[in-house]
Amino acid sequence: MTYPEPEKFSSQVEVFTKDGKEKSGVIEVNNPLSIGGWNIYQYSYDTGKGRDSNISIFELVYDPWLIASYIGIAMVMLGSVTLLFKGGKRE
Known about the structure:
Elements: E1 10-16, E2 22-28, E3 33-35, E4 38-45, E5 56-62, H1 66-86
Antiparallel strand pairs: 1-2, 3-4, 4-5
């Protein structure tokens, strides 16, 4: 028999930035809180307490190249479609 797990992992947080601004929000698994180019993901929680846990573990991710990656993917897709319709004709 498996152990029951919580249906929803979420944390209500308040984040303070270097310039003194405050941002509140809810962080859920696969639903990060975004602040100034940083994404804050809920990584884990205190599994010993299970549903009653008041400890969360977060992962901060900064990806300055995300836009460049999306542009590259769009260019590859556009090139593929162009080759599909305007590719060299076989004789």
